[in-house]
Design goal:
There is one protein chain. Strands 1-2-3-8-9 form a 5-stranded antiparallel sheet. A hairpin with a 5-residue loop joins strand 8 and strand 9. It starts with 32 loop residues before the first helix and ends in a 26-residue tail after the last helix. It has 201 residues and is an alpha+beta fold. Helix content is 22%, strand content 23%. The chain has one domain: Peptide Deformylase. The longest helix has 16 residues. Keywords: Hydrolase, Iron, Metal-binding, Protein biosynthesis. Its EC number is 3.5.1.88. This is Peptide deformylase. InterPro entries: Peptide_deformylase, Peptide_deformylase_sf. Belongs to the polypeptide deformylase family.
């Protein structure tokens, strides 16, 4: 059973290149009704896009906020809402990199390897202003890092070499006709691809 808010409305997903995706977003300071509606809409949008995480700027809103529903390495499902996230990563001998595939709902259809620490912890507050903390490994670690990056105006393409970034954009261009401008309000065109089991954030 989901602990995330329901009854939201699906919004179009903002794509890479839009200004809100590439600047540090504003801290959340108002925890009123508008924020509750936004969070519910983000959850609905994430689910409609079959993603495991979604940041506020991915629906065009300039706030340091993300929602997620993602399994860890053992398959345990972890869900949450994080406002004003602070990321903590292992250092020194405790730091191990996972070079798994990564994708982004704001560059739909494209995936490439992106090395990230295999464990992450995020602290912040939820949509009601109450302190929260999430940590984990596997896909969850990647998700927490990816979404926190979004709140700081960074997309995962910023972490890639020029060669891998070029390949990523070439793959995105290939699949672009399958994703309407208002996706996931309008469904994507069904197609077979090599990444159907790799969720994006």
């Amino acid at each position: 059973m989901s602990t995330l808010p329901g009854n939201g409305s699906v919004r179009p997903i903002t794509r890479w290149g839009e200004d809100v995706m590439h600047r540090v977003n504003q801290p959340v300071t108002d925890f009123g009704d508008d924020l509750q509606t936004l969070v519910a809409d983000m959850v609905a949008t994430m689910n409609a896009a079959e993603g495991v995480g979604l940041a506020a700027n991915q629906v065009g809103v300039d706030l340091q906020l993300f929602v997620f529903d993602c399994p860890d390495k053992e398959g345990n499902r972890v869900q949450g809402v994080v406002c004003n996230p602070v990321l903590e990563l292992p250092e020194g001998k405790d730091r191990n990199l996972d070079e798994g595939d990564e994708g982004c709902l704001s560059l739909p259809g494209a995936f490439t390897k992106c090395a990230r620490p295999d464990f992450a912890k995020v602290t912040g507050v939820d949509q009601h202003g109450k302190p929260v903390s999430f940590e984990g490994d596997g896909l969850l670690a990647r998700c927490l890092q990816h979404e926190t990056d979004h709140t700081q105006g960074m997309v995962f393409g910023d972490r890639l070499s020029r060669k891998y970034k070029k390949r990523l954009f070439a793959e995105a261009d290939e699949f672009a006709p399958d994703y309407p401008s208002d996706w996931p309000i309008s469904p994507m065109v069904e197609h077979e691809d090599d990444h159907e089991d790799t969720p994006a954030t």
